[in-house]
Amino acid sequence: MRIVVSILLFWCWGSVLLVWAEPEEIGKKGCRECHRFSSEEKESNKGPDLFYAGDKFYNNWLNKFLQSPMVIREMNFLSGSYFLSEKANASEPHVALTKEGAKRVANFLMTLRLPNLEAGKVNDEPLSKAESVRAKMLFERSFGCISCHRALNLVGKVRGGVSGPSLVNSGLRLKPDWIFHWLKTPQKFMYKGRMPVFNLNEETATRLTKYILSIRTNL
Q1: Dist CA 110 CA 189 (whole Å)
Q2: What CATH number corresponds to the domain at position 50?
Q3: How many Å separate Cα 186 from the centre of its chain?
Q4: Same domain, yes or no, for 163 and 195?
Q5: Which of 34, 80, 92, 101 fits 46 for a cystine, CB–CB 3.0-4.6 Å?
Q6: Is residue 89 part of a domain?
Q7: pTM, two decimal places
Q8: What are the pLDDT digits (tens) for 135-192?
Q9: Helix, strand, coil % in the chain, rounded to nearest 5
Q10: Which domain holds residue 62?
Q11: Structural domains in the chain (count)
């Protein structure tokens, strides 16, 4: 009986290690040259931070992206001390991983989260037509989000700026609660950057979050 229990404990502990251990792909592919996996690491001006990837991304989307990367931000990423000192250029292609490698990296990234990031801020109830119109006005005119981010016009054509990541179909990759917190307190995720701090109240942040989630093409 003791032998069986010991084997089970060893197997369970081994499974935990497999999930939590950093995959070798991160080192071999030079991921740290572009991304930070901890807030204690040196700033990068090439790619977004990933130390809160588990709060931000859906695992399924990450898996697909890592195998077949697509352009999300047409201009390169600038933040922190690089924000005012460098000029944005076209983004470089993202490295692709094998199916198994992508799965390992995506599972690892899901374990990277910020402490005390409140969940459940955005419910599943969609905006009404009237609310959606008001949210679109906030997005495009009041806060000028369209000047930096790709979105859709009334007939479904892609339009908008390229200095920020595209928000078309962003609901497939970004979690609602992360969008909410990013809109309210972007400084929680980056010290400096292109994202303005609007000091939104919760109602406005929720409305904008739901609008962003609704920016979808016919997939």
Answers
A1: 16
A2: 1.10.760
A3: 12
A4: yes
A5: 34
A6: yes
A7: 0.83
A8: 999 999 999 999 999 999 888 899 999 889 999 999 999 999 999 999 999 988 876 6
A9: 45, 5, 50
A10: 2-109
A11: 2
